[in-house]
Amino acid sequence: MTHASALFRTLCQTVTLVAAVAVLGEARCLAATAQDAVSDAKVDDAQIVAAINKSLSASWRDSGVTPSKPAPDGAWARRVYLDLVGRIPTIDELEAFVAQAAKSRRRWLVDRLLGDSYRDEHARWRATEWANLLIGRTGGGRNSLAVREPFEKYLRVAFAENRPLDQLMREMVTASGSVRPEDDDHNPAANYLADKMDENGVQATAKTAQLFLGVSVQCTQCHNHPFNEGRQNQFWELAAFFRQTRAERVRDDEDDRPKARIVDRDFYGEGRDRMAALASLPGQADAAETYYELRNGKLKVAYPVFIDGNSLHDVFLERGHDYGDSGRLALVNRREELAGFIAESPDFARSAVNREWGRFFGYGFTRPVDDMGAHNPPSHPDLMATLATAFRDADYDLLRLSRWIVLSDAYGLDSMAGRSNQDDEPSLGQPPLFTRFYLRQLSAEQIYESLITATRADEALSDDRRDEARRRWTRQFATAFGNDENGEATSFNGSIPQSLAMMNSELVRRATELGWVEMKKKSAAAGDYAEKKPAGFLSSIAADRSLSNADRVEKLYLAALARKPDRKELAVCNQLLVARKGNAAEALRDVWWALLNSNEFILQH
Questions:
Q1: At residue 309, what are phi and psi to the nearest 5 degrees?
Q2: Which whole number is the average pLDDT over 188-212?
Q3: End-to-end Cα, the chain, rounded Å
Q4: pLDDT per residue over 488-521, tens digit each?
Q5: Are the C-beta atoms of residues 250 and 261 closer than 8 Å to each other?
């Protein structure tokens, strides 16, 4: 091994993060004080943030642990950029942040990222996250009945408008129409059900319960759940809400791949003769039943009943009608009734709060976040209840929920554990105490956008080529990084294939190449002409003669890691420059490559 190679390897090993791992017992929560702090029907953001801080501080005190110190400003800014807009900050954005008064700079940055200045970028990032959640990364692909681009556009508009979550849920659960933009009845919200709507509504039932109620019911399709309160009849009673709905396949003339049109049809039940049902008197309110099979082979009947035990039949009786179990659309639209049940359920707000908390901290109040219930109690029940109440009172405002969480003391803690809280490591199976910020892998989209932000590797590409490059790179994750069950990977997990794919990717190659590119410019006098400029961030730094080598290294660190190099790292870089026999550009290239492939770059910390 050459001297330069050895130094390069040392640099790669130096730019890492170390996480303490161990286990601590379950956190106890303050019984009522947090909820007392937000007892009013309408509260302001400061009250809710204070309630979060008070509740967690009490649980830390009860558990006898001291939280980590606050994260450095640069690390916190990087963290909040990744969580709110899906990428790391630029050097200019970091400088604008640190230029603010120390006491108010974090609130200033959150206001900007959730305000008009970053509205479109925040909406785009949230739309990407939710599209992955709702239809998966492969949703809209060759084997999918959904169309991803219009669905993401629909979600971007919704998040840019800060559409309430209950309204967004209603739009998707009740959507009808074609997923194809060229059709007259195009409804992009219908993409949610496009891949899930089978004849019996099984997939739609399981996914809707998971996403909007935080309960896992798919196991109870065939039998009562062995470990929780879920019963087989509850699954089929919930599935009965989807029995009027069909996903009709529509052929695409261009590529002959089928897409979906979500339609509602009268449902006459499974036990009656269909022709007799069609011949019955118009408006006749016959109950439309669903049958399911027990393990012993016996058949049982199910009608629409929500998971809390409220039946559609009883609800309609309260309205003065006796046709709640009818499958006739003129009398009952079951999906619309289901959306109403979901919106009114306490589990809707609890599920949203649990999922969003997990999005920002890496762990929700339950694990997993979509399997709530008596069998899986939350780690901080009172805090979860406080946030759910506040979220409901804030009209299901996701922007406000994000603000409360990222401005909390817990979100602002350092990722390094101290002696007191070194056992707060939920990856080992114990409930999280949130005494520090837990390290987690970035998603494929976050890594891509961060590479582009740091390196400017796509400057020479057209908008269409940029979009295609992004889709191609993300598809690579979904294909190459699937789990053992052929599911979709959502982040790096440190495997050798992932590391090799990252190091050898076309994007990293472009990001670390030195050279110049021609950019077309316009001049009133000369018309179009070509102007050469450095090919990306690395080339521009290497070509800037006003910078010393130490300045160049500092900018590389700031661009990639949102911090300056320490003395040890600077010393290694200087030794690498000597080993490269004064070739500063090649030495900088080695440093840049090491930074972009470091743990510190691909981790949220």
A1: 100, -5
A2: 92
A3: 33
A4: 544 445 555 556 566 667 777 777 777 654 555 5
A5: yes
